[in-house]
Design goal:
By secondary structure, the protein is α/β, with parallel strands linked by helices. The protein contains 18 helices and 16 strands. It has helices at 27-41, 96-110, 121-135, 147-156, 162-169, 171-184, 193-199, 235-247, 268-276, 279-284, 309-319, 333-346, 362-369, 382-386, 402-414, 416-433, 436-450, 462-466; strands spanning 2-6, 45-51, 65-66, 74-79, 116-120, 139-142, 187-190, 217-219, 255-258, 286-291, 326-330, 350-353, 374-377, 387-388, 391-392, 395-397. It has an 8-stranded mixed sheet with strand order 3-4-2-1-5-6-7-8, sandwiched between helices. A 6-stranded parallel sheet has the order 11-10-9-12-13-16, sandwiched between helices. Bound molecules: 6-O-phosphono-beta-D-fructofuranose.
Length: 473
């Protein structure tokens, strides 16, 4: 059997380049890589189909076919579309028909089409619907994050100007692509029930999907790579610990670890503000911010995608004279991150994810897998990770309420019983519920159960098929 994973945005390579460094290289890529490599290890031929980029600033993605070392039956297929330069995901929308046509050409030349297609994000989804129209190959749609709730959040915030945000984010096109993708998929794969009822339940999708129809949805919980993220000490831990102590020799307090991409919506600043206004907290813990690719935040040029977020964080730190209490450390790759979590655990640290709205919260389960108790946003997927049948696996906080955040942190670091309870329960929960093997098995069931499914022929707006016509919300 051959299965194609359609993921036009970001990119894939053996070195996991740009992971966590750029908004298009986040959890979605980890998800696609982990599920597809698990499936390939069970003997299925896999193609991850992404974009060919011939751009000196992004040299990793110029080969048309690529592989992951040691993963035999998996190809990374890069299709040329939308020119040669790197384009952020919001700018791919006008080019998706060329992506879909490129995929058709690729398989025509091979004389063998995939038996099944999984699509990722609205851009992959609309391409899957087009290929389904031309070939009848069934596809699943995994949205990862839907446009309508994001648009609503932006409209409710400071950026109230619809025209302006639509120009930047292309919401009209994105939401229409998602509507088609979810309507004609054999199944919509969601990462939590919260995603199904909150995101798909948005009024802008109402005519396209019935969220109460169980036959349209499958919940597949993402996982942590427990070969990397686990509590067992490794050699790399000693090396990372030595480097941290070299940079911060006097630091012995526990940390509040923030390791998400430095991006406005990840909302690091709320934890810094909570910390700045809580003297007790300052005596008990330090804040530990993971930077990727930046050694000295006070000196080095900030990354292109940071958009001034680090400067805002630094201003709050300076205004409150807590320069010696907030640590910044450059961590590269998952092995180093797991080492940091284990080192943190030894000194009673916790992990914080204060995102304004988190579609799922992959980072939480990675930290939990290493034994760290977690404090996370109460908006989005973390609720389902940290709560089940009245059982609590970590603390939920309001990411916009500094007092709530401060009190949550205090609660975790002042009660060794609670700390130990969350730590133990957390690692067990990840092992039992959030593994990539479980997620891939579920994908396989869905694929096998829908291989020969014929659905209605998709009706796709001409905007996507020939660039003509206007789309409405
Ligand atoms: O991988 C990054 C990610 O988590 C993806 O799921 C998705 O590409 C993106 O962030 C969120 O998308 P958006 O902010 O466009 O809704």
């Amino acid at each position: 059997m051959r299965v194609a994973f359609l993921n036009p945005q970001g990119n894939f390579d053996s070195r996991n380049s740009y992971w966590g460094l750029h908004p298009d290289f986040g959890g979605q890529l980890v998800y696609v890589k982990e599920i597809s490599t698990a499936l390939s290890s069970w003997g299925i031929d896999i193609d991850i189909i992404t974009r060919r980029i011939i751009d000196p600033e992004w040299p990793e993605f110029s080969e048309p076919i690529d592989y992951y070392e040691g993963v035999g039956k998996l190809r990374i297929v890069r299709i040329e579309f939308g020119g040669r330069r790197f384009l952020r995901k919001e700018r791919l929308w006008p080019h998706l028909k060329d992506y879909a046509l490129g995929i058709m050409d690729f398989y025509k030349k091979e004389n063998r089409f995939p038996d099944f297609i999984t699509t990722h994000y609205g851009d992959g989804g609309i391409a899957g619907a087009m290929i389904n129209l031309w070939t009848k190959i069934p596809y699943t749609f995994t949205a990862h994050s839907l446009g309508a709730p994001k648009m609503e959040r932006l409209l409710a915030g400071e950026k109230k100007d619809f025209e302006k945000i639509d120009r930047k984010y292309n919401f009209t096109v994105r939401i229409n692509a998602e509507r088609i993708a979810m309507k004609y998929s054999v199944r919509n794969i969601v990462n939590s029930n919260i995603e199904r009822y909150e995101q798909y339940g948005h009024r802008l999708y109402k005519k396209w999907i019935d969220i109460n129809d169980d036959s349209r949805f499958e919940t597949v919980y993402p996982g942590a790579n427990t070969k990397i993220f686990n509590p067992l000490p490794k050699d790399i831990d000693t090396e990372i610990e030595r480097k941290i102590l070299e940079k911060y020799p006097k630091n012995h307090l526990p940390w509040v670890i923030l390791s998400s991409r430095i991006d406005a919506k990840k909302n690091h600043i709320s934890v810094i503000k909570a910390y700045a206004e809580n003297k007790r907290l300052q005596d008990l813990v330090n804040i530990f911010i993971v930077t990727r690719g930046i050694d000295d935040v006070f000196k080095d040029t900030l990354s292109k995608s940071d958009e001034g977020i680090l400067s805002d964080i630094i201003s709050v730190i300076r205004e409150n004279h807590i320069e010696n209490k907030v640590l910044f450390f450059n961590i590269e790759g998952q092995q180093e991150l797991a080492a940091l979590y284990r080192i943190g655990f030894k000194r009673g640290s916790i992990f914080a994810l204060p995102t304004i709205h988190e579609p799922f919260g992959l980072a939480i389960i990675e930290a939990m897998a290493c034994g760290l108790p977690v404090i996370a946003t109460k908006y989005g997927g973390p609720v389902e990770i940290l709560r089940e049948d009245k059982e609590e696996y970590g603390l939920l906080i309001d990411p916009l309420d500094a007092k709530d955040i401060g009190e949550g942190i205090l609660k975790l670091v002042t009660s060794s019983e609670l700390y130990e309870e969350f730590s133990k329960k957390g690692t067990r929960r990840v092992r039992e519920k959030f593994t990539w093997d479980n997620a891939a098995k579920k994908y396989l069931d869905i694929i096998e159960g829908n291989l020969s499914k014929t659905l209605v022929r998709p009706e796709i707006p001409s905007y996507f098929l020939n660039g003509k016509g206007v789309l409405f919300l």
